[in-house]
């Protein structure tokens, strides 16, 4: 019987679907992300009451919320492989690049879905008004991709370590810091009804590209070590 070799795209898609099916069965990451987001939003809302926060502080709160939601659940893409003993099978049958980008797509999808759910609640609870919706959505997408890219490669780094969850956050934050600060400043401009510069958007997009290229180069060493 001839051996069927899947293309890189098909292998990426298969790994993303595998993670999606596993998550649908356990709902661990979804529950962690959603519960953390809801509890954090409720706490912020009760703490500030009817007060209206400055736009820069509101933007910072939004991205801090998204960052720590990601830290609560996105490390599972490699931790669950290590804990269930399936990581060896992936190393044998899945190329490093397919594993990296399959899990990156899954993390991106998870984070974008969470963002869609919490943005309306964030607007209502903090009583804010969004200007330039198209640019705001683009900033959210680019920021989420950056968080997912950084989270995926650091999750691979810490999967075999002790205290992996604490180490995951500590390692991800410095990698993501330039994108994080850019997301906050660009979002603050939007909340102030100031149209962001094209350079702000270009920086976010370029940082994501550089981060994914660097992750792609580094990942094979991590994956087969």
Write the layout of secondary structure elements.
Elements: H1 8-26, H2 28-48, H3 55-73, H4 76-84, H5 87-93, H6 96-126, H7 133-158, H8 164-191, H9 198-223
Overview of the molecule:
With 225 residues, this protein is mainly alpha-helical. It has one domain (8-223). 83% of the residues lie in helices and 0% in strands. The model has no long low-confidence stretch (mean pLDDT 82).
Low-confidence stretches: none
Q: In percent, how helical is the residue content? A: over 70%
Task: Please give the domain count.
Answer: 1
Based on Cα principal axes, name the global outline: globular
Radius of gyration: 18 Å
| Residue fraction in strands | under 5%
Helix-and-strand structural type: mainly alpha
The end-to-end span amounts to 33 Å
Q: Compute the number of strand runs.
A: 0
Biggest sheet statistics: none
Count of separate DSSP helical elements: 9
Topology order in helix (H) and strand (E) letters: HHHHHHHHH
